[in-house]
Design goal:
- 82% of the residues lie in helices and 0% in strands.
- By secondary structure, the protein is mainly alpha-helical.
- It has one domain.
- 3% of the residues are buried.
């Protein structure tokens, strides 16, 4: 696992790989895990699994459980976003289209009203 992780760190240049490359270097220089705060608790859990795997402990069951937890959290976030989407889509309707419809409906009536007053 250690070789696979080092290969990932050397071959990828994304934000996660750069962050973990720094942590990996600090870990092997200091001989212990860094105490830097992670952005999410999922990244912390994955980092702990990588450390355990590089230490020779089995990680398949924990990795599978973490995968299921992340998938369910992503699905819950997607469902929460989709539940608020109709309200977000209705705002342009209320602020842009509804006044236009009012002008179309009330315009002829206002024109007749001003004509009847002699204007």
């Amino acid at each position: 696992m250690k070789e696979a992780f080092e290969s990932y760190l050397n071959s990828h240049a994304d934000e996660l790989a750069a962050d973990w490359r720094e942590r990996w270097t600090l870990k092997w220089q200091a001989g212990k895990s860094s105490t830097v705060v992670f952005k999410t608790h999922y990244r912390r859990a994955l980092w702990e699994l990588v450390e355990r795997g590089c230490g020779g402990q089995p990680v398949l069951e924990s990795l599978t459980a973490l995968e299921e937890e992340i998938e369910s959290a992503a699905q819950a976030e997607l469902d929460r976003h989709l539940s608020t989407l109709p309200f977000k889509v209705m705002l342009p309707l209320l602020f842009l289209q509804f006044p236009a419809h009012l002008i179309l409906l009330l315009g002829p009536m206002l024109r007749e009203l001003t004509a009847s007053f002699g204007g």
